[in-house]
Amino acid sequence: MKITIKHIALLLLILAAPAFVLIGCEGQQPQAPPPPKVTVSKPVVEDVVEWDEYTGRLEAVDTVDVRARVSGYLESIHFKDGQTVKKGDLLFVIDPRPYQAELDRALAQSKLAKARLSLAENDLKRAKNLLSARAISEEEADTRASDEQVAQASVEQAQADVNAARLNVEFTQVRAPITGLISRKYVTEGNLINGGTGGTLLTTIVSLDPIYCYFEADEQSYLRYTNLEQKGMMPDSRKGENPAFMELSNETGYPHKGYIDFIDNRLDPNTGTIRGRGVFPNPDDTLTPGLFARMKITGSGQYKAVLVPDEAVGSDQSQKFVMVVNPEDMVEYRQVTLGPRVSGLRVIRQGVGPEDRIIVNGLQRAMPGMKVSPVEEDIVVKEKNFLTPGIVIKDPESNTGG
Predict the structure, then answer these.
(1) What is the CA radius of gyration of the chain?
(2) For the chain, how are helix, strand and coil distributed in percent, rounded to 5?
(3) Topology of domain 96-171, per CATH?
(4) pLDDT tens digits, 115-166
(5) Percentage above 70 pLDDT, the chain
(6) Residue 294: beta bridge partners?
(7) 69, 62, 68, 59: which is closest to 87 by C-alpha?
(8) Which CA distances in Å does 288 have to 60, 184, 212, 377, 386?
(9) What tens digit of pLDDT does each residue of 222-255 get?
(10) Is the pLDDT of residue 357 over 80?
(11) Which residues neighbour 374 within 8 Å (Cβ) at sequence distance 6 or greater?
């Protein structure tokens, strides 16, 4: 077969075809990747109250040092160490025999005084009759009247001695002055007890329900609270009952609800703090004086806040920011000022508005100026805690204040 020019031209055309295809491909521009998908949400706007956190110690409302009012030998003990006692329960008995003897003597003296009074009254009655008959002088009649008054005073004095002796007999039984938890006995049976002021300490009792939690607030926090009270944005803790929450070191969620009932009248110049106190019910006696506790108290008046999830907030050295998707689906960088955490969300004090679309998922795929494909979702709000009618107070979580 002869290879003609026509055949050669056809062969060259076949061999050159891939090159033309390659040259044509190199001239085309590559297609841009699709915009990354991100989840966006509008901030939650709600009425909130901020909470400040303090540490404190539990203290009993009532603490009593149990001492005897009379001296004597301790005869018997009528409680177990560490038990709960009620007001009026018998705790100790001091040998009552010396005091019973004193009571018997006082009763005898009272009878003697009453007999003398009866005689003086009869003498005065006869003297008045004799004076009417001019059988005795007025001086004699005055003497009989004076004797009757002295006898009356003797009766009253004897009765006072009886009352005092009866009290001493009663005081030989030492009873619980309050309801609460009793400590151990500090003196055992058979020991001599000194009574009265500065007498022998027998034991101590602390009340448990309710219980106090004392805390210290710094000067700036105190001034902020005072300013809010003067503006009518929160009640005066000295006059009202601002709510408070408390938890022990092994608890979470601040399960104990109470209120602030006391703010001291001066700041401690050494520490720059002022003492406050919360009151908490303790019906099951689980809160014990001396325990460490954390407290949350209202740190602001009610205000409308913009809230976003913490996951939407990024850090740029010392700055905090969020990424906002504008109407053209372009990403914008927004520097924000953060507030406390409320109901699982973060308060944004400045930087975003209620209609902004915040990137809450996919933040790592978004860069300022980049076009994205937003998927809108609503932010889920955790359970609210309504403490006062008409006021929404969020259940305190992790806000650290003042």
Answers:
(1) 44
(2) 25, 35, 35
(3) Helix Hairpins (1.10.287)
(4) 887 877 776 677 677 767 677 777 776 677 777 788 788 888 888 988 999 9
(5) 85
(6) 55, 247
(7) 62
(8) 8, 16, 10, 47, 28
(9) 998 888 888 887 777 777 678 889 999 998 888 8
(10) yes
(11) 37, 38, 39, 40, 325, 329, 357, 359
Count of Cβ atoms closer than 10 Å to residue 91 Cβ? 21
Angle at Cα 348 formed by Cα 389 and Cα 317, nearest 5°?
A: 150
Question: Structural domain boundaries of the chain?
Answer: 37-49+302-393, 52-61+208-298, 64-91+177-206, 96-171
Residue 77 · residue 92 · CB < 8 Å: yes
Element (H, E) at 330: none
Tens-digit pLDDT profile for residues 251-305: 888 889 999 988 999 999 999 999 999 999 999 888 999 999 999 888 887 888 8
Q: For residue 30, what pLDDT is reported?
A: 66
CA distances from 118 to 79, 127, 139, 143, 149 (A): 49, 14, 21, 16, 11
Question: What three-state secondary structure class fits 249?
Answer: coil
Helices and strands: H and E segment counts in the chain = 4, 25
The predicted structure's pLDDT at residue 204: 95
CATH domain 37-49+302-393 topology = 2.40.420
Q: Which CATH class for the 64-91+177-206 domain? A: mainly beta
- 210 prior amide bond cis, ω within 30: yes
The CATH number of the domain covering residues in 52-61+208-298: 2.40.30.170
Task: Quote the CA–CA distance of 145 and 124 in Å, as a whole number.
Answer: 6
Alpha-carbon separation of residue 9 from 5, 15, 18, 23, 259 (angstroms): 6, 10, 16, 20, 102
Q: Are 357 and 377 in contact (CB under 8 A)?
A: no
Residue 321, Ramachandran bin (φ over 0: left; ψ between -120 and 50: alpha; else beta): beta
- C-alpha span between 278 and 298 (Å, rounded): 12
Decide if pLDDT at 46 tops 50: yes
